[in-house]
């Protein structure tokens, strides 16, 4: 089994300096099948990625090692999130053609969410391939961005994906998490669930780092664990608006 790593990353650069410009990001990642990433395109644009793969162990790690750099390259080439997903789907299908007569030969599916965040005006353009969008937090409210569902990558060719654009208000936050979080179980066998997560998000205040840490602490308390489970990934991001420091 792959080792579990805990690491924090910050985006630093002109217009993206943490706590001093348009975008504040904080990531907690426990390396496994469920991965979040974010990286700048230029001084005004930040990309956010969330991906998970149906495979386990070494096959999952190997596929992720190919998919994440591929998505980086497609996005940095100037493609929109939806067009990047369409190109990635074609390339992933070329890795291992699906043999419908033998389920053991099926290629793993990859669920991906891509968001392009503009620090200039708070526009968040996103597309999804089978991965739920983030939660939107503002003034004590929390809701998931509207989403009708789309096929994951690697299911079949010729799939079209759509770009959606939401505009954030200054101070508004986006919270990304995988199904691993809402699917956590207590010692009594009760599931953490989305309602509990929404209640936690609505009551949380402070920086993205504080939000991510509070959700992590709540998950540890719920499971009565001293260390987090693998497959757990959390990303919180806030637009401060107009480049004003926090």
Key traits:
246 residues, alpha+beta, Phosphatase 2c, domain 1, 6-stranded antiparallel beta sheet, 5-stranded antiparallel beta sheet, 5 helices, 11 strands
Summed up:
27% of the residues lie in helices and 28% in strands.
> What's the CATH C level?
Alpha Beta
Give me the strand/helix succession: EEEEHHEEEEEEHHHE
- Low-pLDDT segments: 1-24, 97-106
Query: What is the topology, as strand order, of the major beta sheet?
Result: 1-2-11-10-7-8
Backbone structural class: alpha+beta
CATH architecture: 4-Layer Sandwich
Query: Helical content, roughly?
Result: 25-40%
Describe the model.
This protein has helices at residues 57-76, 81-95, 179-182, 193-203, 208-223; strands at residues 6-9, 23-30, 34-40, 45-53, 110-118, 123-129, 135-138, 141-144, 164-167, 173-177, 233-239. The protein has 246 residues and is an alpha+beta fold. It has a single domain, classed as Phosphatase 2c, domain 1 (4-Layer Sandwich), CATH 3.60.40.10. The strands form 2 sheets. A 6-stranded antiparallel sheet has the order 1-2-11-10-7-8. Strands 3-4-5-6-9 form a 5-stranded antiparallel sheet. Helix 1 packs across helix 2 (81-95).
Topology overview:
Layout: E1 6-9, E2 23-30, E3 34-40, E4 45-53, H1 57-76, H2 81-95, E5 110-118, E6 123-129, E7 135-138, E8 141-144, E9 164-167, E10 173-177, H3 179-182, H4 193-203, H5 208-223, E11 233-239
Antiparallel strand pairs: 1-2, 2-11, 3-4, 4-5, 5-6, 6-9, 7-8, 7-10, 10-11
């Amino acid at each position: 089994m792959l080792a579990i790593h805990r690491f924090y990353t910050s985006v630093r650069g002109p217009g993206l300096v943490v706590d001093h410009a348009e975008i504040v990001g904080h990531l907690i990642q426990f390396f496994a099948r469920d991965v979040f990433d974010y990286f700048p395109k230029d001084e005004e644009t930040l990309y956010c990625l969330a991906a998970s793969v149906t495979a386990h162990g070494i096959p999952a790690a190997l596929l992720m090692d190919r998919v994440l750099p591929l998505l980086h390259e497609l996005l940095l080439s100037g493609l929109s999130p939806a067009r990047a997903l369409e190109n990635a789907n074609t390339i992933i299908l070329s890795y291992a053609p699906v043999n419908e007569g033998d389920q053991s030969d099926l290629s793993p599916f990859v669920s991906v969410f891509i968001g392009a965040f503009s620090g200039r005006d708070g526009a968040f353009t996103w597309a999804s391939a089978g991965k739920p969008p983030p939660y939107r937090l503002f003034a004590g409210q929390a809701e998931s961005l509207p989403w009708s569902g789309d096929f994951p990558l690697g299911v079949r060719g010729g799939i079209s994906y759509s770009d959606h654009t939401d505009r954030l208000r200054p101070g508004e936050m986006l919270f990304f998490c995988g199904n691993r979080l809402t699917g956590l179980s207590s010692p009594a066998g009760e599931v953490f669930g989305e309602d509990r997560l929404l209640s936690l998000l609505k009551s949380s205040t402070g920086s993205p780092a504080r939000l991510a840490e509070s959700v992590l602490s709540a998950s540890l308390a719920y499971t009565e664990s001293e260390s987090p489970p693998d497959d757990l990934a959390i990303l919180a991001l806030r637009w401060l608006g107009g480049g004003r420091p926090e």
